[in-house]
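[09:14] KT: can someone run the structure on this one? pasting the chain below
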Amino acid sequence: MSQSNPLRRLAELGQSVWIDHIERSFLKNGELLRLIAQDGLSGVTSNPAIFQKAIAEHDSYDEAIAAHVRAGHTAQEMHEALMVEDILIAADQLNPVFVRTEGRDGFVSLEVSPLLARDAEATYADAKRLWTLVGKNNLMVKVPGTTEGVAAIRRLIAEGINVNVTLLFTVERYAEVLEAYLSGLEDRVRKNLPIGQVASVASFFLSRIDTLLDPKLESASNPQVRALAGECALMCARGAYAHFRKTVLTARWQALAVKGARPQRLLWASTGTKDARYSDVKYVEPLIGPDTVTTLPPDTLIAYRDHGDPARRLETARTDGTFSMQEVLRAADIDWSAIALKLEEDGIKKFVAPHEAIIAALSSKRAQLQAG
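[09:31] RB: done, structure tokens below
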């Protein structure tokens, strides 16, 4: 099975495969369990856009929505309850993976409200509330990798809460996130609290980088600039991985590791190819390496199962590309810092919009059911 299924080979090469998808019937009809058994799937990620699509486009939630309306719940209460119900089912189905891997995998992720992305204190409070509400050791609370989010991450890790840091686009911000993780673990050590059960991943978003940058690069007169089209996301990812590998060799990390600390693995997100000119496994194939996670939307997961070519490529890839990339962009009057900020702002908006859309849709359904 492992030799014929490229997805299972990824696990043998040190990379965990998660799916970027959740939906009630997907959980109820045994599809998630099938993917765990067939493909070695070992985790689930969700976000406001995924939940909006699931609840708005599938009738599998109608019975639950009607029950919440009869109970007098508001649209906001219904939204959270429906999400948590799905998270609980997924957590239970993934728990055998969590046990078998001794807490390395088997996680399901639930995002704090995207409306709080610019509020450090509110992000911390909401993450802590969701952790308590779900009450599962294999939950990861998703916190945006904004400046405000980074401030919350250290506190959450210090309290033993598993964190999936989302919306990362630059090596510099990733370095801040990793620092917050290490500091949070050190805070626990100073209080004589265990650190071996704390888990975290740092989700680096890929295809969105190229989607924003490619039009600017392709219109440039300089061939060196045009050559960067389709390459910037991978360069940034390799730079982040190089920083990770450098960090785990430090005495600081080793002092934590001997106490049982788990590395904060890089998770490759936004792996679905948005440009039809590129391979449908463009953001999977080059980024295979130990201590990484790749989370795949269903179409990309199917594509990789069909024609993936697994091999460790991260360890041998050049890792100085992000620096030369920034130099070339600067020479072309493209401000990478401004691009990164726009990616972050756009990422927040892409989560806020579906969050607000599902609240509006549930409000409408609630009114219809009450009137009926």
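[09:33] KT: thanks! The CA atoms of residues 196 and 261 lie 5 Å apart.
[09:34] RB: yep, looked fine to me
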